[in-house]
Structure formats: structure tokens, C-alpha cells
Amino acid sequence: MNNTFTHALARAIPSAGRHCQPRASLFRQARVFSTTPRISESPDETPSALGRAFQAARLEEAAQDNSPESALTKMMRGSRAPVSADYSKMAQSLEAEMLKRPYSDHAPPHRLHVLSHRRNTILTLTRPNGSPLMSMGTGALGFRKARRGGYDPGLQISSHVFAQIQERGLLLEIKSLEIIFRGFHLGRQAFVKALLGNEGRNIRGLVCRVSDSTRIKFGGARSPTVRRL
To answer: What PANTHER family does this protein map onto (predicted)?
Structure first.
């Protein structure tokens, strides 16, 4: 009796009958013993229909434009692998691991030793294992005796070493560079000036670390007296 009255009322007043219609139970809506999501029965909303429409559009574009550039672009787009949903989580974990150990996954750098003595300035480039690649002092540029320890000789030898690194093709081998200073004389300031200037524009981008290995004396034998002129 109640169902007959409800259907009659629904036909008479559609807006009122929409709220009065009996709803199906949750047990009937659920798919028993199935974990796959429900797919809409409409053929226009299925993924296969969307995929066919997208493929037809791409074929139409290929028919209109047959240039080699567009074909290469389409080939690159077609070979692109799908991105995993967990990629962001993996990137975050990798970034956190690199912050904990910043030098763990990197190859050991090449080293450029800068010996700044009061009588000379010597630059030595070594491999990560310590074997030398290049070693030059201010005497190789024609400076003799007391003139070798000045500011200008240090600036010239620094620029010359940077040019030799580029001419010998060592920039292809060097992935990262560590600079090790030794001494606090004028050649050290000249090297820093050359590295930050136009001469070192291709070298300073490779620098990953700067350290100081100047020897400090604690006790020991008595130092010689300072020469007075």
C-alpha cells in the first residue's frame, strides 16, 4: 500500500517523489568479494574511449604536419616513461640522505695546492689519489730570486695555470675541485684575485671546498732570528 502511494506521488510531483523514493541498501551497492574500482557504464567516460580519442587527435596532427622536427618531438613524447606516484617520496628521502651525508655519494675532488711562500708561489694540481697533473712556480715565467715572491708574479702564475688547465683539456676530467692554501704571503692574495676575476671564470664554478693546511708550530726548536737589513 505504501509503495503504491509513493510511486503515485512520485509521478504526480517529481520533486517531492525524488526525496521519497526508497534508497538501495549499502549492501547492494557494494561489490562483494571484489577490490577493483567501479567503472562507469557510459562509453564516453571510460579510459579506453578517452585514449582512442587522444590517439585519433595525434594521428590527425601527424597527417597535417609531417616535418622531421615534429616527428622527433612526437617520438620523444611517445618514449616518455610514466612517472611513479611514489617518486616525490623517493626524492624527499634522497634529499634527506644527502643532507645527512653531503659528500657520501660524490666522487672525491681534484685538488689544487697553493703554496704561498715569501720567496715563491707554487701551484700544484693533483688527482683525487694524490698523483700530480701539473706543478708550476713563478720561476717558469722568468722571475728570478727575490722577485718570485711578489704579488704580480703570483697573479701571473695563477692566470697561467688556469689557462693551462683549459688548454690541456683537464676541464673534462675535473668534476669538482678542492683548493688547499698553505701560507699567508702575497701569492695567496694574488691567487684569490685571479680566481674571482676574469681569468678564473671557468675554474671557480668547479670549486666545492676550500681548506687551509698552513703549518702552525707548537713548541719545538727555537726559530731563527728575523733578518734585519
So the answer is: 40S RIBOSOMAL PROTEIN S14/30S RIBOSOMAL PROTEIN S11 (PTHR11759)
